[in-house]
Amino acid sequence: MLSQPITLKHRQITPGPNPREHFDEAEMQELKKGIEAAGGEPLEPLMVRSHPEQEGMFQIIFGERRWRACGDLYGPDYEMLVLLREASDAEVAALATIENHHRANPSEVEHAQAAEKLLRFNKGDKQETALQMGMSPETLERRLLLLHCIPSVRQALTKRGIKLGHAELLAGLPPDRQEKVLTGILVHKVSVELLKSQLGQFARRLADAIFDTAQCSGCPHNSARQAALFDESIGDGFCQHPTHYEELTLAELEKRAGVLREQYPVVRIVKAGDGFEPLEVTAEGAVGVGDAQYGACKGCASFGCSISGVAGSLGKVQESLCFDAGCHTGKVAANRQALREAARASETSAAGGAQSGQPTAGKHGKGTNPARQSAQEPHDSATSSAAPSADSGDPAGTQARASTAPAPAPAPATSAQVSGRIQQFREEKWRAWVANRLMAADRENARVLAALALASNTGAINTGRYTEAVNKITRAKLGNTTLKATLEQCDALNDSDMHSVLKAVAASAAYGVDEGGLELLLNYLKVDEAQHFKLDATYLELLTMSELESLAEELKIKKAMGSEFKKARAGKKPDFIAALLKVKGFDYTGLVPKAMKYNRRSLKRAKDNTAAKARSASSSQPDDTRGPAAADAAAEAATNSAGEQVETAAAAEAA
Asked: How far apart are CA 256 and CA 266, in angstroms?
């Protein structure tokens, strides 16, 4: 409630919350002249409230310009006419905002700040706020958008250092760019039109975006909002925050790349300045690698695609690429060599056929390229060297001439790099296979353990794995304590368990040797992958779609599926895997991918049958009552004796 006007000394009054930040000097001088002309007293009283913190003092609700002018003219003892009102902080903010809006020329930024305060007081009701400020809702929106300007831009507009058009254009820029552009405007006196032109060069067209632009509709950096509300804008449909635009673009590229990684082992996002040159893999053409190798390439760890992050081709995918230039060059060279050799073989065959009067088309038939076909088809030596059947009806002379014709040149061996996922899976399986084999093979187990000790490689014995195995064998909890305590624990073990406990020492080394040592053990133990590996979903899920396709070709599953393969390949990965594993009539027994096979290495080994013969001889002696252990010892002695004899004979031959 308002009281009747009263007077208070100027010094009893202090400024309150005021949306006006800038008091123009010229306008203040004009106000002072008006007060003096009116007889030394403002035409309207100030509105004040009791100061919330200082007793005996009063705080201005509105009228600060008049208070300042009277203080300058008449000093601190001047008796000012005021209206006293009790009001809360929120009411003070609202009243000050409304009064200032209808008084002398507050700046647009002051309008915006006042509108924001009043909007908070009105709990976000823009209609009520616009009505109180005497604005249209559109004008209110325009003023609120100016609050996206950084403080230095607002201050420049308030002090008339820049025009409203400048501020409207700057409001759409990210904060860091606003500061830089403002500096340029002030230093170089950049006009609104020139600024609009310059900003347009850095803006990004939303029509060219590969991400969903629905999220941009309410963004302050969308020029559409400015174009609809401001007098000055760079036009509709632009993003004025290039950095954020690039972030959204990269996020979309990563999203698309994630989908493509189900298809290919390598997916590369190409950016401007990468200097990327795509290396396409193809079966035919000047840089072809051949049909068979191309099938292997699709399962290679360096096979994949690129997705463009370059303006003008954003999101464009280029498939069937090789990311190992050295390997690709070698495969192309091998294919060219194979084609040349096949061509020479074809020419020689054609010349021989002409001399003997035989047709030269052969099995290739009319319209085929025998040179290419012989280079691409794997050479079947068993078929090509087979003798003609007795009932073939082929004269002996014809068979003889055919046998002298050169065989088609074999295709170069195919190869592909194994992905990291398969390498890890393979190594885990190999180690388990070696450990299991060592637990089953007494003879090899003992020799592996001796070799580890003699080669000072006992550090390969994996203590954790060994402890786990021993506890499983003995159904006890041993290890992880002092030597004394462990020795006492081991002494208490059953004699029946000790044989397996000792074998577990060498078996645990399967988990400690390096990759080279692992392959050595695989070869020594003659591990047969087909006895251990099973083609199942667990393995196939490690592969991308292109790797699955390559594997299907390698294992002849694709051929068995016929026309159904293309349909399955076009589907989702889980469905494709399921289709590969349930081909009707296809025998999956013993199928092992090349990637799961170890490299065969030659090892010097004693005659495997020496010990067997010794055991057989000892078992034929009915009076031998030494038991199985003694018989084994005798067999072992016989083996050693035979080995010594072989060495003596070899030494004599060398001499």
From this structure: 13
